[in-house]
Each structure stands twice: as structure tokens, then as C-alpha cells.
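Hi Y.,

Following your request, here is the sequence exactly as I used it, all 397 residues.
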Amino acid sequence: MSTKDWLEKDFYAALGVPKTAQPDEIKKAYRKLARDLHPDKNPGNPEAERKFKDVSEAYGVLSDERKRREYDEARSLFGAGAFRRQAGGAGGGGFGGGGFSGNGSTFDVSDLFGGSGTGGAGGGMGGLGDLFGSVFGGGGRASGPNRGGDIETEVTLDFDEAARGVTVPLRLHAPGVCDTCHGSGARAGTRPRACPNCGGSGLVSRDQGAFSFSEPCRDCQGAGTIVEDKCPDCRGTGGVTKTRTMNVRIPPGVTDGQRIRLKGKGQPGRRGGPAGDLYVVVHVRKHALFGRTGDDLTLTIPVTFPEAALGTSVRVPTLDGSLTLRVPAGTPSGRTLRVRGRGVPRKDGTPGDLLATIEVIVPGNLDDAAKAALEAYAAATPGSPRAHLEREAQRRG
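Below is the corresponding structure, written out as C-alpha cells. Let me know if you'd prefer a different format.
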């Protein structure tokens, strides 16, 4: 696919978001469309598979801040369809109005693509060949190696799995190297040949009025090679959308919504380019007992009033077993006791702490014996804990 074809794709429209969309909006739109259009959900539906690829392609550019910025700049500079304008009379302006001239010198548009023309604007632009390469994964030359696209998937873990770490199998449905031709696109026993139109460079130059224009070769789509006897499985593309399963190690201590990057596990590169990355978004189920504050494990411990007043020992669960917690006499409801080293593992391998919050339980129904016991307790402990409030209330009238 040539650079101009890329630029004429509206990635914002593919995801159904405005050009001003924030990264969270783009991610939300992509996830919804990816779920709805996923081939596993639409078996045998080629239209859904095509849209799934378009959505993935759009997200691969718009989710990357640098690629998105350069894509927007390129679209703004050339505009959709700008490459298809034909030369008119001299001095017409724009790309379709003949050559640009000033002080007797002509402007070679090949400078924009990193060529060696003598026009003065090329250096100022920084070479749009590099810009296009960074946006679409290639280098300044159309036939250079292209980096593979990034893939994003999701996994849901139990609370304990997220805290301790776990190895999970991931089932990915994404583009990959064709196993039959190993990415060459040619039928077994044959090889691609150099494109005769561009001589294997992937670029062709043509004159339009007073300036020269370099663009990816249309015969080989910028690849520099032509596959005459195409692989029956990938139809000459070198890649197929396939399902693969891989085991991924989720490190201890991951949090809900955390994004884990696995370098080189994304889509394979083209023409010897490096593979993209795989991003795993982690979701963590809530636990019936435990909670988290950073790397600290939180737990609420109910105790009775006599236990809080007299002190007690309570057996409580932890991530790796259990322990006996000593509740000191006179512990009020809401006090938090810290147990060092029994929390969630940190990135450096050291554990956080267990934060145990005491909750004194007040019974709702008392039998006669319990009531009598409490009344006797009240009689044995004269004085009110609200004496200071009562004095202030009396002063205020």
C-alpha cells in the first residue's frame, strides 16, 4: 500500500471519534468495536473481519501520541486526495498548479520525501519520508523494513492471582506471518523477483511540469519485489489473520487497569522489520475480604466489645496463609493495626504490609441475661464519656 493510500484513510472515522478525541475516548471506542467485530464473535463474516482489521489499524496509529501527531500533520499538509491532483498551468499554486518558482529556481517536491533535490524547503521540512516512515512503521525508503503493529488484549484475574502473580494463557486473533511461505508471499519453491518498474527500490519518479515527484511504485506497492506465483494461503501478502495461544507471565502486584507491555510479541514486521508489541490490560476481580491501598493489603476484623475492652488474639487470613493478631486491651473501633511484610509484593520483590482495621460489633438483640450483665457493667463504671459535651451544652443553654 502506497503512502498516499495510507493518508487517504480516515482513522478517526474508522473508530467513530472526532479529531479532538482524548486518548481515553479513542481507547474506549476501539475496545467496543473490537469486541463487536472480533472474528470469534462473527465466524464466517468477511465484512466484520475487514472492519476488525481497519479498526485495529486505526487504533495502532491514533493510540500512539507521536504517530497520531505526525499522521494529523501529514493529513493537514496534503489533505485526502491531494496526491491525485494533476498538474495544470504554470504558477497555478498548490500541488496541482505546476512548479513552484522563485528567484529563477525551481522547487523539487522529492525534497519533501528525503530526496536530494536542491530546493530550499526540503531541509526545513525535515524530510517527509522520515515522517511517513515513523507514522506507518517503515523507513524513509518505501522498500525498507516495516515495524509490525501493536496488539492490545485484556485479561481478568482473581485478587489473589493479581497480588501473587500468575501465568495465564492468552488466545490472540491477529495478523501473523504465513506459515506456508514464511512471509515471502510466494508459493513454495518460488521466490519474489525484483520489480522491473522501480528496479527493486520501491520508488518511482515522474515529472510534472517544472518539478519532479517521487512516490511508491504502484506495480509493487512500494515493496520493491513482485510475487508472480502467489502463496495459496496468504494470496501473496505474506501474512494471514490467525489464532495463536501464548503463555504470559503476569508479575506480582499488578493493579486493576494496569497495562503490561510485552516487547516483540505483537504483529510481525514486514520485509525483515521488527515485530510490534503486545499490550495486556489487566482487570482484577474484587475480593470478599481483602482490599488494597497501594502495596498494602487491607482487612477489616470484627471483634466484640468485651474482646476490644479486655484484649484478645484473633486468627486472620493472609495472602500466603494466616497469622495470629494480638488486639491490645482498650482498642477502639476503627483503629488500624499494621503487620509488617504481609502485604502485596512490590516491584523490587519486597512485600507491603497488612493493615488490619478493628471494628467493634454492637449486638442488635439482647436476651435478659445479656441485658442484666450490661446494666451491671454500667453501674460498675460510673461517669460518662460525654461529660465534656454535656458541660458545653449546658453552658450554651
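The first helix runs from residue 3 to 7.

Thanks again,
Q.
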